[in-house]
Amino acid sequence: MIRKTGFLLALLMNAIFVLHAQTVVKGRVTDAATGAPMPFVTVVLKGTVEGMNTDVNGEYSLQTNEKTTQVEFSFVGYITATRQVKQGETQTLNIALMEDKRMLDEVVVKPKKEKYRNKNNPAVELIRKVIANKDKNRVSSYDYVSYTEYEKMQMAISNTTGGIKKNALLKKYQFVLDNVDTTRFEGKALLPLYLEENIAQKYLRKNPEKKKTIVKASKHVTFDERFINNESISSYMKHLYQDADIYENNLYIITNSFLSPIADMAPTFYKFYITDTVMADGIKLVELSFSPRNKNDFLFTGKLYVTLDGNYGVQKADLNVGEDVNLNWVTSLKLTLDFERSTDGRYHLSKNDILVNFGLFQGKKGIFGERSVIIKDFDIKTRPDDSVFRGNELVMADSFNKKSDSYWLENRPEALTDAEAKTYKNIDSLNNMKSFKRLLDWGSMFIAGYKMLGPVEIGPVSTFYSFNPVEGFRLRFGGRTTPYLSKRYFFETYAAYGFKDERWKFFLAGTYSINNKSIYTYPLNYIRASFQRDTKIPGQDLKWIQEDNFLLSFKRGVNDKYLYNDLFKLEYVFEFGNHMAIRADFSRLKQEAAGGLHFITNTDNIADTIPTVTTSTIGLEWRWAPNEQFFQRKLFRTPIPNAYPIITARMDLGLKDILNGQYDFQSFNLDVYKRFYLSQLGLADIIVGGGYIFGQVPYPLLEIARANQTYAYQLPSYNLMNFLEFVSDKYINVNIDYHMYGFIFNKIPLFKKLKLREVASFKLLYGGVRDENRPENNKSLFAFPTDKYGNTSTFSLEEQPYMEGSVGVENILNLIRVDVVKRFTYLDHPYAPKIGIRARINFDF
Asked: What are the extents of the domains in the chain?
């Protein structure tokens, strides 16, 4: 019994000894050639399940109770090493791995078909290191930077066929059709139609932060300015192909926001794999392949090459957009970023190529677009003189657009292809052809609404015929001069006649351009005097379309409250700096009630109809739109939204007894617009504003809320509010327009196939009318308007804010947006719609 007990005790003591006699192996793995630490090396205790990857410093630590005698070190592109270990001891093994010359350029490790995890994934650990080091790898981390940038943008018809050349209608243009490039991209025949080149010197300063761009040379294909605004084409091209900074969370390409593969949230949306190692400039690089977790999201597929020099910078990036991403008109998109080693060992961007195929036609034919940027003479040691950063951020050097061919041959970092070089000459020849001019002329009339007649143009065509309840059928005819008559003087006029009210209306304006440029070309600097006698819907302020446009004649409900306005206006407009603008004006406005609208007072309880109201006003407006781009049209600009706010402030001062002005008052308005990019959740356009009117004035001079009774969805208007329904002398407003770009619909097969996208909006207006401006408190003020039954139809926002919201679908047939709009408040007002369907046309990628 004693012997058995002793034997069992001995076994137990031995088990306890073995249990606690752990084998511990730790150490550091380095590169045998460079001595640099090697992260993500696989270390395994053979014969056990214990293993790990070295950390970013090349260090590891393993322990086991199991029997083992060897530890193995392996890494892609290196010779696997095996070392002996001592059982039950703690030991340090430092090892230097040698490159496998036979494998370095050949081996590719493909991801296994297994459930993907971020945890214990060496690729994710590496990408997190890249993310953690983003700030120091940005160009903005340097105190001073200067470099020369060459930019080339082009558009071409891709995969042109012999059928186009044989078309009898295009016989006159054979010299253009023969200029096909088949050498640049395998399997593509490119017919260049647009080409632009720019050479600029750029400077950056960290503290205080400042940028400066001096455009030294610029050259682009030029079409006839009478029909096409060439500067707008350039601006829109730059908007489509913006600078791509992979160190930013989002990259903006083709008007859409794509999440960068090294964004802060990249591991949540991307899958990462280590697929190779290579050497470049004596630096070891890890090839990281990545793909979207959801292939429908606005994400890239591609490869990153990351340095293992402690900076964890990107040495090269190949980014592709998959065919499942909900992009309009785009069949393929590729972005390539090449980086070059700076004098301090870090990498900076040296070349940026964006290639896009726009599938606008059937089959494989389409439009090919490219933007290539090459950076040279990157300098981080020389401190630019402080005077360099004074003045505007963008400066055009003298004769920047008049450089000789020899200058371009000497300063282009890459030569143009033969087809590209011929593009400038071919388009010049094309512009001189009468048939091509006729084509542009009729195309301009169809798109912009103006028909050229020598130095003047007639239009806009959409206003020649319209109708409304006051005028009945309305005919209008007008036109304006063009810069081909004079760049200093511009004249515009129209005449209109209403067959129901039997009244003539007209407009006459004369403008003097101080800077001798077109008054439709940035920067504006002009003086204008105008007089207009015409009808107007109270509260309407349609900036981007004529109020008597034929399509706006179709309206819902009762809309018979109009004004006859006689408006004389003298204004001065000046744009300067970083898209800052000042507008100063004087106006005299005489308003006469028309249709179902009346100006009625109840002084001494006796109703008295007042025929007209006259005001004389001086106003000052300040607008700031940093880095603004826009597409210049015939009558107005279409702003191209960016990440910067647009601030507009206006102050007006009413002058009593000046040119028969009847009221003293002061008003102030402020609006702030901002686009918010929400990465994979889309974007939101938000407008916040407010205003206040000081003084006692009748309701035509109060702030009249911008209502909409058409069936079109108007972004800045209240789409279920009736005309002249609300007036205020103090107000605040919030307008939110949210686009999800298919974040939800892309996960529904049918919606994804149709490329439908979700959209929603919310609008709020809150304010009121002070006691001094209420007609019930002051009988000399005009009574608020009523309907034909005597019910009040104009109100103050006293009880609660006016609110409406909508949900909708956009991108129907790639062009149409349809919203279901719901009104939430003031549902008891006469003729107040509770719900409605509105539509608009919108071209977007």
From this structure: 2-102, 129-431, 449-841
